[in-house]
User: Fold this.
Amino acid sequence: ILSQADMHALYGGVVPEIASRRHSEAIVGVVKEALEQGGKTLSQIDGIAVTYAPGLIGALLVGVNFAKGLSLSTGLPLVPVHHLRGHIASNYLSNPDLEPPFLCLVVSGGHSHIVQVEDYTKLTILGRTRDDAAGEAFDKVAKMLGLGYPGGPMIEKMAEIGDENRFVLPHPLKNSNDCNLSFSGLKTAVRKIIESYDESGNIEHVILSKKDTADICACFQKTAAECLTEKLAKAADIFRQKYPAGKHLVAAGGVAANGYLRRRLEKLAEEKGLLFAAPPLKWCTDNGAMIAWAGLERFAKGLSDGLDFKPRPRWPLDETAPKAAGAGGVKA
Ligand code: KG4
Ligand code: ZN
Assistant:
């Protein structure tokens, strides 16, 4: 693992140009170190898994081109992996008892999905966010409160001393008959509360007391967790109907690190007769390990690829990697 978080914290968020430069500077050293730590040489490796989507295109290009170069020079097969499949696979790393089918909540900085994992390589999306991702909402609310980046852990910490019942916040899409999510209205409601502390409603002028900040954090965190569990409850019924013997509800992605959310999910799982599991923190953000595992599942099924796939900033979780234009596949 090599984290750039400190660098991005200076700017209050990820700066795409810095992210891709850092990737190209670091990738050779990180791969060497991973081989060293694993006590392996390249000649003992069977295949190369790489994230092709979704994310910042600059960073994806560095990874995909490096992996293609390594594949070309070693003759090893390439396995393109969707980043969110890696997050889902992080659960196998920490939970040897877990096997499909299971229900998975994937909540990260860029995505919020409720996924029915049918087998190791097949999944069905039961619900997704219509606007902001859950992590994005945490980060934006933290920014409004001047708590810094990344916002999730700061909000969780402040929420511990806050009153979660002081402000009533909306539950967007609560009554929709599907498993989809929405966080943009919740974020706006928080903004309005903060603005109400200034006569002219200018958020830049507001200086909140620690108590007010903590109360806002607690109310936001509670409502975000409720929005997620309400839709997961619906999804659990759908899952249970299709797989009466299915055992697990799991969570993945950076937001799954949130202790309050984990407790709510645990409670929901109990109500639905399911077992809750989520990877420990170190597996929630270890992109190398999770992508390797997800790649292994595809590799075992013979799902490796040639050099003609390309990285994409956005790409559906339930499709295979796009082919480069002119290679007989999907054109951009
Ligand atoms: O999965 P991840 O590393 O990034 C993406 O793949 O997008 O997740 C990062 C996100 C950030 O939005 C961060 O604020 C959030 O996960 N996060 C948390 C917590 N720790 C990280 N959100 C809520 N509570 C936390 N403790
Ligand atoms: Zn991620």
Q: What stands out?
A: Residues 83, 87, 108, 253 surround zinc ion (ligand 2) (CB under 6 Å).
